[in-house]
Amino acid sequence: MKSYRKELWFNVPARRAFINITPQVRECLGESGIREGLALVNAMHITASVFINDDETGLHNDYEAWLEKLAPHEPVSRYRHNRTGEDNGDAHLKRQVMGREVVVAVTKGELDFGTWERIFYGEFDGMRKKRVLVKIIGE
Ligand code: ZN
Predict the structure, then answer these.
(1) Closest by CA position to 125, among listed 73, 54, 81, 53
(2) Superfamily of 2-138 according to CATH
(3) What is the pTM of this model?
(4) Cα(90) to centroid of ligand 1, in Å?
(5) Residue 97 is inside which H or E element, if any?
(6) Which of 10, 40, 41, 133 registers the highest number of CB atoms within 10 A of its CB?
C-alpha cells in the first residue's frame, strides 16, 4: 500500500471565504501515483472547514447568509468563547456546521465524484496562514 501526505497552505485576505481546492487535490493525487484508494482532505484548524458541494456562486452566497444567521460574527460579546480575548466564537460554530473533512474514493487514478461534487475550503476566521491536510492511501 502506498501512502501520500501533503499540507496545502492558505492565507485568505478576508475573514470568510469559500475556495474550490479540487485542482490542488487532483494535483496531489497525480503526485501520489495512487490509482485505487481513498483521499482524505481535512482542515487543520478549528475555525475552517473542508466540505463537498456545488461550485456555484449563488449557493456560496446562501451559505454565507445562512451561517451568518445561525452564528452572526457581531456582536462579538454574544459568545462566551470571546471572553478569552478572541473574536472568533462564530467561526468555531460555523466550522462545526460545515464540517472538518471529506473522504473521496480514488478510482482509476481519478477523484470518484458525483457530477457536481467539488471540494471546498471554508474559511471563517481568515487573514492568517492556515493549513489543509491531504492524505491519500491505496495502490
Ligand atoms: Zn477561538
Answers:
(1) 73
(2) YjbQ-like (2.60.120.460)
(3) 0.96
(4) 9
(5) helix 89-98
(6) 41
